[in-house]
Design brief:
By secondary structure, the chain is mainly alpha-helical. 63% of the residues lie in helices and 0% in strands. It is built from four helices and no strands.
Amino acid sequence: MSQTEGARLFREAWIAGVNQHFPGEPKAGYITPWDDTPQWEREAAGAVYDQVRQFVEISGGHASRLSREQRGRFVATCWTAQMFKHFDDPKPGYVADWPGLPVWQQETDADIFDAIEKSLG
């Protein structure tokens, strides 16, 4: 899968997770379709996809033994690094550590890891 395809998979998994886990009506920006997603966000999604893909591959197929929280934390940490890459002074919510993320976002991040891992199957 190309990085662009991986980025799209990431975005689709994000939107699915938001739709499933967000309490109430999510902000429009959370569920913006791929074609309307800003370029920086596409690049960030592709980078995180690549990081998760590489992590799964170098684990020799054992990444599935990580807890759901560990899988979600990995995605969140990779995303935080991208926020620092793309923004000089990112909003605090963009770079919050795992305990500071809302539960819906933690669940969505874990879903993203699982979707990427499944795509490599």
